[in-house]
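Lecture notes, continued. The same structure-token format from the folding unit now serves as the input rather than the output. Read the line below as a description of shape only.
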């Protein structure tokens, strides 16, 4: 069975709402999720987190692209 996966972009490993920059959990089990974020400030470390409502192990395929400003 397919998992109901969600993805989040955090500024720290602390799982508190203040560390979440953006996230998505729009789909149903088996649906893909899409996340877009534009960073315009100073250099910063971000953490991309995949999560699931289900407690069972799951597999996910991730793909992303990064575009630097002015390029």
């Amino acid at each position: 069975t397919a998992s109901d996966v969600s993805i989040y972009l955090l500024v720290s490993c602390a799982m508190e709402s203040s560390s979440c920059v953006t996230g998505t959990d729009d789909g149903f089990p088996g649906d893909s999720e899409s996340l877009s974020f534009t960073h315009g400030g100073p250099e910063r470390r971000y953490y991309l987190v995949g999560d699931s409502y289900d407690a069972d192990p799951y597999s996910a395929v991730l793909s992303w692209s990064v575009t630097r400003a002015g390029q």
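Point for the exam: The chain has a mean pLDDT of 83.
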